[in-house]
User: Fold this.
Amino acid sequence: MFYIEQLFNGITQGSIYALMAIGYSLIFGTLGLVTFVYGEVVVFGVFVGYYLYAVMGLNFGLALALGLVVTWGVGIIVDKVCYEKFRNAPRLIMLITTIGFAIFLKSSTQIVFGTQQRNMPDILGHVFLNIGTFRIPFIQILIILACIFFIVGLQLLLYRTRIGTALRALSMDKDAAFLVGVDVDKVIKFGHSLGCVLGVFGGVLLGVFYNAINPIMGPNIGLKAFTATVLGGITSIPGAVIGGLILGVMENLTVAVYSAGYRDIIAFIILITVLVIRPSGLFGRKLES
Amino acid sequence: MLQVEDLRVNYGQINAVKGISFEVKEKEIVTLIGSNGAGKTSTLRSISNLIGKSGGKVVFKGEDITRLKPSEIVKKGICHVPEGRHIFPFLTVEENLFMGSYANKNPEKSNYKKNLEEVYFLFPVLKERRKQMGGTLSGGEQQMLAIGRGLMLEPTLIFFDEPSLGLAPILVEQIFKHIEKIRDMGKTLLLVEQNARKALKIADRGYVMETGKIVFSDTAENITQDPKLAKAYLGIA
Assistant:
């Protein structure tokens, strides 16, 4: 029974990781590059939402929405500062700019919102869904549903809309995207900000799940999103979802079997194992153009 | 229709294009020929602004387009079918064609459908494979897709960059037939080719490039008969 509950915890956490991983994957796809600032953007966005909700007393939905709007803006700023001028420069430069911006954003978050861990207020209270002898916290079901909603929404956006098709096209061949008349700069900003927003939404859910948020949890979030993405095969969105779920379940089962101290080790173990055994991930593309 | 004046392109210290001027008139096929590294592709890429110009001026239909963004140049009706085809490998054939219409000025659905049918009529094989990923097509089919994608824009001027590159002779033959058909549709073409004989056969006029300069220009017929061509084409200095 204990293990089944842990499994369910794992699925909940895994779906949050999945959401963050697809955000990461989207950013990787549009920029063609890993980013080190993702975790910090997520934390900043989460704290903006937290501040609006817990300190200024807006209702949860409105605070969340405003937090996501601010995140969209932060995404554009990150693109302006870290990427825009360096699109044709050597890759290394953009890696370094993201590291620098991550430090800046982390410190800013601490200056603006303080350095303490904050308790995320309970938004639902302790409501449980009882199935036989199971007690599943209702909030977990909501979290999973919210993740599914966003993942499906993103799929529809990418495969059914004009800008989504342009995003996919851009991730495959930037030159060709230019040549069919895509305003590449704008679409990159769109994809990057969308990825950030997905990440922050995941971050909020994570805060709700743990009842706590911390201004220095950025690198950890970045690592988890990165691991899940790499596991799934970095540009594959279904891959990122599966990668996130596997990571979440593994983490929680590890905690259940050994101890909570092992929670973060498992991500590293997965990351290293994948990179050694199957660098293209579970669903990585083998066809290279 | 297109006037290029004193166009220069540098890659760092290297001058790839050293101040060339040429012109493409309406409904013409003009070809830029020359050996590897003569600067032909750089010329096209800089007109489309995929790479920066270090000098010069480009005028299209009386309008200065020297400094426009690539996406804006496309919107003027200049389509660039790039060297190496550059189709989107993980989009289906139909999505590739949809992307071709991205900058089309007449975005109505009926217009899109009409253009799609036209492309499928020109290249029936694309219709057969419309649900397949672009990357799974053969080289010749990918070239057709690249051309078809360009036509979805309803361009007035089309740049073809080495359409015959890496194709079997029989496919080269086919591609050139298609290019002639596209000319007959009333389009103006600027064709860059290493396969000079083939290009001159369908072109009205030609410019011969060598190490970043235009060394010779005349009607296609006259160039074909000139011994200087062999010199430029084979790269014998």
In short: The first helix of chain B runs from residue 40 to 47.
